[in-house]
Amino acid sequence: MIMLISFLAMAITLILPLFLYAFYQTLNLKTPAFTNWPFVGMLPTLLWNVSRIHDFQVQMLKSKGGTVEFLGPWFTKMKAVITADPENVHYIMSKSFDNFVKGDLFREMFQAFGEGIFTTDSIQWKYHRNLLQYLFNRSFESFQEKIIHNKVEKSLIPLLNHVVQQKDSVVDLQDVFNRFTFDNICLIILGQDPNCLSIDFPEVAVEKAFNQAEESIFYRHIVPECVWRLQKWLQIGQEKKMTEACKIFDNFLYDCIASKREELKEKCNKNVDTEKNQHVDLLTALIREEEGERKDSKSGDKFLRDSAFNLFVAGRDTLTSALTWLFYLIATHPLVETNILKEIKENFGQKEKPWILSVDETKKLVYLHGAICEALRLFPPIPFERKEAVKEDILPSGHHVYPNKMILFSLYAMGRFEDTWGKDCMEFKPERWISERGANVYVPSYKFFSFNAGPRTCLGKDSSFIQIKMIAVAILCNYRVILEEGHIPSLSHSIVLFMKNGLKVRIAKR
Ligand code: HEM
Q1: Contact, 336 vs 327, CB < 8 A?
Q2: 378-413, pLDDT tens digit by residue?
Q3: Which residue among 190, 386, 452 has the greatest number of ligand 1 atoms within 8 angstroms of its CB, and so is best to mutate?
Q4: N or C end of the chain: smaller count of CB under 10 Å?
Q5: Is 319 in the pocket of ligand 1 (CB under 6 A)?
């Protein structure tokens, strides 16, 4: 009976909007604003605008003062408050932090993340957070610096040189960044290099599987719960793809865990110095934690798998997205490019090729820092976040929230609000982030929300700026990146803001 109701719900949800859409098209009418239709609620409007969902949200939120109520079909639990209001963000993320959680439905929708730092709440989350804070220490910074240095020198530069030699060849820079960050995160977490970034552009199934899972999770946000649950049960559409992707990266992660355990056992049997004082990959560090360096250590392959998966998404896809949009914006703003190069020359005029900076050197680049902040403001790698209330409450905007009512934050819309950023909010202006004294301007995290705010602020914020600067400087000083004529970028449908068809460019030597 439940299956039948779910099936009918799915049919109505998918078919009715199509009828309404055809009706509007036939009469040549404009598609309606956020109309609450009988029975189907506001879902048709959402589905009509799904191809431009982020810009649609900006438009809706601007017209409603920063927060809107969304009501789904009558028979579903699809109810949400969508907000881009900094006061609401401040209230939920910091002032009333304990009353707002990710919740059980979030964990189900983000099932691929398991019980990792992104999906857990209260004590479990605190455990993950403390553990990662302890692992991301100073020696981790230099370990990461070495990895990036090597990757840039041994893989990125040879690959781009190869592209330059193939006269007139067009390359997808987003794919290049994806490969770079995949190798990088494998080295950081697993201590092994899959060499995805090489001139033959090898197909790596697990790299694609992560992206597929992220797309399928996004899809779970735009259809009623009963629809994706039915699809999951029937194993069709996006849900089938999700299951296949999960199998691929689970096999990959569990194999890595098994071989790492084996490797550490062998080292231990042979009495090889296990480099306790040197920095090691995060998986080794987590396995050592199991051996009891901390009293409350958690253990088991599932714990390691979940921790590794969360770090893969946190530390990889966000960087790919940030680099892709940064390079798109620089390629379309030649004056900004000139200013970045000028700043590099002023600071390190005598530096020899191949222009790979150290961590300390990256900290001198104030203008480049501003350009990165601008890219992250206009194109936040995580375009939306969600929470729900433990006890009912009224938000500063006056909206009522209660358990099971989704609160969605549009980070994408927040970066495009005049009230926060001024009349020129749609322009790419690194100068916005530089004070009269020439230092970077501080903007509170509940306004510049791209790295989250409050106790759950991103743990990789500083490291992200370092990595992006190292990669950006190495590319900009060695090459000119020219946007392929006619290439129009569009936003992906995923929980990470990629470019839908990649970033097609030509590369020339500088
Ligand atoms: C440009 C790059 C990055 C951006 C824009 C970014 C953004 C974010 C955002 C928005 C969140 C909150 C997500 C949520 O709760 O739903 C977050 C959390 C997190 N980020 Fe990042 N991130 C970036 C890079 C990194 C890197 C390189 C790492 C380190 C490997 C990292 C580690 C984390 C962790 C561990 C959390 C969970 C924090 C918690 O819940 O306590 N991030 N990040």
Answers
A1: no
A2: 999 999 999 999 999 999 999 999 998 999 999 999
A3: 452
A4: N
A5: yes
- The residue whose two tokens read 């439940």 is 2
Tokens of 158: 């040879």
pLDDT tens-place string over residues 275-326: 555 668 889 888 887 776 555 556 789 999 999 999 988 889 999 999 999 9
Consecutive H or E run containing 189: helix 173-189
Q: What is the DSSP string of 68-120?
A: EEEE--TTS--EEEEE--HHHHHIIIIITGGGEE-HHHHHHHTGGGTTSTTT-
CA distance 221 to 16: 19
Both structure tokens of 35: 């109309």
How many CB atoms sit inside 10 A of residue 64's CB?
A: 16
Nearest CA to ligand 1 atom 6: 451
Pairing of strands 400-401, 479-483: unpaired
**What pLDDT sits at residue 15?**
57
- Determine whether the shortest distance from the Cβ of 322 to ligand 1 is under 6 A: yes
Segments of 161-246 assigned E as strands: 170-172
Q: For residues 343 and 353, give the distance between their C-alpha atoms in angstroms, rounded to a whole number.
A: 16
Three-class secondary structure assignment of 340-389: HHHHHHHHHCCCCCCCCCCHHHHCCCHHHHHHHHHHHHHCCCCCEEEEEE
Distance CA 390, CA 407 (A): 12
Neighbours of 388 (CB within 10 A): 22
Spell out a b/e string for 307-335, using b for 16 or more CB atoms within 10 Å of the CB, else e.
Answer: bbbbbbbbbbbbbbbbbbbbbbbbbebee
User: What's the whole-number average pLDDT of the chain?
Assistant: 88
List Cα–Cα distances, 348 to 42, 139, 334, in angstroms: 55, 25, 21
Determine which residue's CA is closest to atom 28 belonging to ligand 1.
460
Q: Which two tokens stand for residue 189?
A: 């977490």
Nearest-5° angle of CA 499, CA 504, CA 505? 135
The answer to whether 176 and 154 have CB atoms below 8 angstroms apart is no
Task: Using the structure block, give the residue that is written with the tokens 């605190």.
Answer: 126
- Greater confidence, 467 or 2? 467
User: Which domains, from first to last, does the chain contain?
Assistant: 2-509 (1.10.630.10)
